[in-house]
UniProtKB/TrEMBL annotation:
One Gene Ontology molecular-function label: magnesium ion binding
Name of the protein in its database record: Hypoxanthine phosphoribosyltransferase
GO cellular component: cytosol
Organism: Succiniclasticum ruminis DSM 9236
PANTHER family registered for this protein in UniProt: HYPOXANTHINE PHOSPHORIBOSYLTRANSFERASE, HYPOXANTHINE-GUANINE PHOSPHORIBOSYLTRANSFERASE
Length: 180
């Protein structure tokens, strides 16, 4: 374990098992369909790539960047898309992938934007879901783990840009963010 981590919430083995299960489920449900995984950078990069490889059907990949305006510690409620998809997604079945849903504002904003591009369907996939933090009632279609409202890092989740590459999801020691 890393010195800045208080406890491991989800182990590397648990993540691998769950990603495999989700990949198999999605492969069954989307068999025969033209599927595109849209990864919300940066957080979802790790999960989206692993999920794509856990799927046994052909999938395309796209990447988007959406950021909420604000000071970085609190959300402002306004989400801007800074990098849009490159290819035409009309008629495709979209799986919008993120590492975590918190307030739900990112998913809601990006989904609304993608709907204007006329995909055949859009569903949301999140590795972690902090249900208690939701501000808009959004429910993800596929969730890896429902987690408590704690400061978690790893497997794409960062604190000030660090810890994304930890292979597990852990709770950050409060002393780390007290330093800031
Ligand atoms: C984080 C996280 C989700 C989003 C969830 O991304 O990766 O994308 O916030 O929050 P919400 O449900 O309240 O909108 P962030 O904008 O911090 O960027 P990052 O992915 O580059 O870390
Ligand atoms: Mg993100």
């Amino acid at each position: 374990m890393h010195e800045d981590i208080k406890s491991v919430l989800i182990t590397e083995e648990q993540i691998k098992k769950r990603v495999q299960e989700m990949g198999e489920q999605l492969s069954k449900e989307y068999a025969g369909k033209r599927v595109i995984l849209i990864c919300l950078l940066k957080g979802a990069a790790f999960f989206a790539c692993d999920l794509s490889r856990a799927m046994s059907i052909p999938v395309r990949m796209e990447f988007m960047v959406a950021s909420s305006y604000g000071d970085g510690t609190t959300t402002s409620g306004s989400v801007a898309v800074r990098l849009d998809v490159k290819d035409d997604i009309a008629g495709m079945h979209v799986l919008l992938v993120d590492d975590i849903i918190d307030t739900g504002l990112t998913f809601a904003r990006v989904k609304t934007l993608l709907e204007t591009k006329k995909p055949a369907s859009i569903k949301t996939v999140a590795m972690c879901d902090k249900e208690d933090r939701r501000q808009n009632g959004l429910e993800a279609d596929y969730v890896g783990f429902t987690i408590p409202d704690e400061f978690v890092v790893g497997y794409g989740l960062d604190y000030a840009g660090d810890y994304r590459n930890l292979p597990f999801i852990g709770v950050l020691k409060p002393s780390v963010y007290a330093r800031a």
